[in-house]
Design a protein that fits this description.
There is one protein chain. By secondary structure, the chain is an alpha+beta fold. Among the domains are: 4-134 and 179-191, Jelly Rolls (Sandwich); 208-296, Immunoglobulins (Immunoglobulin-like, Sandwich); 663-778, Immunoglobulins (Immunoglobulin-like, Sandwich); 780-851, Immunoglobulin-like, CATH 2.60.40. The strands form eleven sheets. A six-stranded antiparallel β-sheet has the order 3-2-4-9-6-7, with no helix packed on it. The protein has a six-stranded parallel β-sheet with strand order 26-25-24-23-22-29, with helices on one face. A four-stranded antiparallel β-sheet has the order 1-10-5-8, with no helix packed on it. Helix 5 links the parallel strand 24 and strand 25. It is globular. The relative contact order is 0.08. The mean pLDDT is 96.
């Protein structure tokens, strides 16, 4: 009789276990979280509105009991094994079946199986109870009893280091404290005689890409299985190969398939994402006993770290199917504080947004969770590579025998469950732990390779990143590169010439925040974090600030939704938001204009970063920067944050400037100020500077392309073209190429924008407008914007230059192909607006926002 899986997703009720007179109430959904259920019954206010989170902190210090009943199988059932499967419990629990304790759990990330073959009542109701203890209080007690106090931690309560619960739930610099609990992933009853316990699938691709070997291993548990059948189906669904083997006395079998001329999986922008299906079935005397399947992509992967031709250090780039890839994308945080509320459609909305934005990689950050399986399936489909942190972030974790044992169990289970996904291209040991070890002068001898010595220091957790996790990855996923931490460049961790860096000199540099125009100065071999905060859309603000009188730039409620503290204890990051707005723009006092200014500062900053770092991808042996992952793609809460789209998945302006910067073919320009001489370091008098106009082109395709480069100097106020030049250029494949570098008069540079266009046959294929910086010095005109709407297309032009023209609609029904655009005279642009249906959008641009 085949394995039968019964979802235990109905009849659940809950109560406050620490309150004797508390009554059981039905859950709002299943899986669930305690805050969702309490909100559903009106027992707490909506946590995301106003400052309501401050009123509900008591929830995380209580115990909560969940229960349901399920019917036991008939006594004549041929199944001999019964297991309860808990895909995720948040976090410390005591599980009871029919009033008998059957399991304790203490790791949110683990899936648990409990054999209840001897406890289940046949032909009768069985009561399942899960008591959720206060992980916060347990962590506090563990910290109190710990043999060693943590040398450092950043964000949240230090007790979070003692427990395996999502760090961000303790509060982070983008979210308040929400100490959740509950059955956050499905619960099942599995009934079987024999089952496929594991189905690891590995695809090895020949160096010349002409063939692949698919190795399928099957581990069987139970009794009665006689034969194993494994089938390989192609991307179109046709069955390609099939093999049958006798199982015999062994519980493990391995079958290999040779695939000629495989259809290769490529990152987004480099090719298609064909996916193969591997299905295994075990059979006994009475037929099929269990089936299991995996969907895989066939691709060849390497992390290339080798010396560069004319720069110090080493490269750090991914090679997929022998093609060097520039990784461009963003960091991923959990997309809600209450994880069971995330639907597959919501995952898809976020990830498709990234893919449409020319992103090919996201970094699953180590302060969140290992995501739902559907998340990885969607990344496989979209060609989004994943840099995956283990869930360890910003702290000196303990290294007690029990904690290390828990980490090993967690890491093994996680990498085994995800190893078949072609999207995962790197496992990373932690987020910023090495960096903080350097900052706090931990007893960290990089050259000491004896793990026993590490355990005797004030940073014993090094053994997790430098021994335990790499050994687990080498054993279970040897085909996936492992990186000790992020950032990590060896000694020191933030060496910009090796590994990856977090580039926070813009936004949060301790001494003074760099201007965002300086992003090109702070490159690394791979920049895995950087960003600048902005406000969410006005529509989103109106949804969570309920008092209309609080909807203004100086609002207490708005400031409360900005969770990051600055380096000064008396200040918060809203001062930094204001700094970057006021340093760069003339912005009016209304909320609408303040939101516009904050989003424009983020958009301009991200454009400078991506353009400058893609410029350093210079071809073989000169991969001086090979990746840029902005912090962050998404929000888990309606906050003032670094996200590229707000909590309601409404794209901010930066989303579009990054999309343009990351086009396969892109032209870029910048004015660089070169200091020729400085007689006295203490004064600006007699300093001689030269301003140079530099233009470069990026061709990230696999073919050399030829274009005409048109350069124009345009007076910002009059729109007059004061200089024009046409150059025939060639852009070699998969690199950026310098195209133009000449001095520009300093006074002229203050009054003209430089328009750069790549053209072919008179058609503009890529355009960029380089404006005088900072923009606040410009007296921008307000010309008429000529806008023609034809179905889902908007044709827009102007007789004078316009900076940062934004299209807006009252609802969310329109998907813009581009937004926040610059207009120059004589250059009509066509924007596709899916869902516009002939409606007229409203517009705003920088000159208007100055009021």
């Amino acid at each position: 009789m085949a394995l039968e899986r019964t979802a235990l997703n109905t009849g659940w009720t809950f109560k406050q276990a620490t309150k004797p007179d508390s009554a059981f109430l039905p859950t709002s959904q299943f899986p669930t979280a305690i805050h969702l259920d309490l909100k559903h019954h009106g027992m707490i206010p909506d946590p995301i509105l106003d400052i309501n989170w401050a009123k509900i902190q008591w929830v995380g210090e209580e115990e909560w009991l969940y229960r349901t009943t399920f019917r036991g199988h008939p006594r004549d059932s041929k199944h001999t094994k019964f297991e309860l499967v808990f895909d995720g419990l948040d976090t410390h629990t005591t599980i009871s079946l029919n009033s008998r304790e059957i399991k304790k759990t203490e790791n949110m990330y683990l899936s648990y199986r409990v054999d209840i073959s001897d406890e289940i009542k046949r032909d009768a109701d069985n009561e399942l109870q899960i008591l959720f203890h206060s992980t916060f209080l347990i962590g506090r007690q563990l910290e109190k009893d710990a043999p060693q106090k943590p040398l450092f931690w950043h964000n949240g309560d230090s007790s979070r280091l003692q427990v395996r619960k999502a760090p961000y739930s303790y509060g982070w610099d983008f979210v308040p404290i929400f100490l959740t609990c509950g059955p956050w992933r499905p619960v099942y009853l599995d009934s079987y005689t024999a089952k496929i316990a594991e189905l690891p699938v590995v695809a090895e691709v020949a160096k010349d890409l002409s063939s692949a070997k698919i190795r399928v291993s099957v581990e069987v548990e139970g009794s009665g299985a006689k034969t194993l059948k494994v089938q390989i189906s192609g991307p179109s669904g046709d069955m390609l190969q099939e093999k049958d083997v006798l199982i015999g006395n062994s519980s493990k079998s391995t079958i290999e398939f040779d695939v000629s001329d495989p259809k290769l999986w490529w990152p987004n922008g480099n090719g298609a994402q064909p996916l193969y299906q591997v299905q295994a079935a075990i059979s006994g005397q009475d037929g099929v006993l269990c089936t299991s399947s995996k969907r895989i992509g066939i691709r060849r992967l390497e992390l290339i770290q080798r010396p560069l031709h004319d720069q110090p250090g080493k490269s750090f780039y991914f090679e997929v199917n022998n093609a060097p890839i520039f990784s461009q994308g963003s960091n991923w945080i959990p997309t809600d504080m209450f994880l069971p509320s995330i639907t597959p459609d919501r995952y898809r909305a976020w990830l498709e947004l990234a893919a449409r934005g020319n992103q090919n990689m996201i970094r699953v950050w180590g302060g969140g969770v290992y995501e739902d399986p559907v998340f990885y399936d969607i990344c496989d489909e979209l060609g989004i590579m994943i840099w995956h942190d283990f869930m360890l972030a910003c702290g000196a974790y303990p290294a007690t025998p029990k904690f290390l044992k828990d980490i090993k169990e967690e890491a093994i289970q996680i990498v085994k469950s995800l190893r078949h996904h072609p999207c995962i291209v790197l496992w990373c040991g932690n987020n910023e732990d090495h960096m903080f070890a350097d900052k706090y002068n931990a007893q960290y001898d990089y050259d000491d390779h004896n793990p026993e010595n590490w355990l005797k220091t004030d940073w014993p957790a090094r053994i997790i990143y430098d021994k335990i996790l790499p050994e687990i990855c080498a054993s279970h996923v040897p085909e996936i590169p492992y990186h000790p931490g992020s950032p990590w460049g060896g000694k020191p961790a933030m060496d910009p010439t090796i590994g990856d860096v977090h580039a926070w000199d813009v936004w949060m540099k301790a001494s003074a925040q760099y201007p965002y125009q300086w992003y090109y100065k702070i490159a690394g071999r791979f920049v895995s974090e950087f960003g600048l905060k902005s406000y969410p859309s006005v529509k989103t603000i109106e949804g969570y600030v309920t008092d209309p009188h609080e909807r203004h730039p100086q609002s207490r409620v708005l400031d409360a939704h900005l969770k990051a503290s600055s380096k000064s204890p008396w200040a918060r990051n809203y001062r930094t938001v204001a700094l970057y707005i006021q340093e760069n723009f003339r912005i009016g006092k209304s909320l609408k204009h303040w939101v516009y200014g904050s989003q424009l500062s983020q958009a301009e900053a991200m454009s400078f970063a991506f353009r400058g770092w893609r410029r350093l991808w210079k071809g073989p042996g000169r991969e001086e920067c090979a990746g840029a992952l902005v912090w962050q793609l998404n929000d888990c809460f309606p906050s003032v944050s670094w996200s590229l789209a707000d909590y309601k998945v409404r794209p901010k302006y930066a989303y579009y400037t990054i999309k343009r910067a990351c086009e396969p073919i892109a032209v870029c320009a910048n004015r660089i100020e070169v200091e020729k001489s400085r007689p006295n370091e203490f004064t600006e008098a007699y300093v001689v500077r030269e301003t140079r106009l530099q233009v470069w082109g990026s061709n990230f395709t696999d073919k050399t392309e030829e274009f005409q480069l048109r350069l124009q100097k345009i007076d910002v106020v009059t729109g007059k073209i004061t200089w024009e030049k046409m150059i025939n250029i060639k852009l070699p494949e998969n690199r950026s190429t310098e195209l133009f570098d000449e001095p520009i008069d300093e006074l002229e540079s203050q009054t003209v924008l430089v328009s750069a266009s790549l053209m072919r046959g008179g058609k503009v294929l890529s355009r960029f407008a380089d404006w005088p910086q900072p923009l606040k010095y410009l007296d921008l005109p307000r010309p008429e914007v000529v806008m023609k709407v034809q179905g889902d297309d908007v044709r827009v032009s102007a007789e004078l230059p316009i900076k940062a023209l934004v299209f807006e609609m009252d609802d969310d029904s329109v998907q813009w192909s581009d937004n926040c655009i610059d207009l120059t005279p004589g250059d009509e642009q066509v924007i596709h607006a899916k869902g516009l249906n002939g409606r007229q959008p409203s517009i705003i641009h920088l000159a208007v926002a100055a009021d």
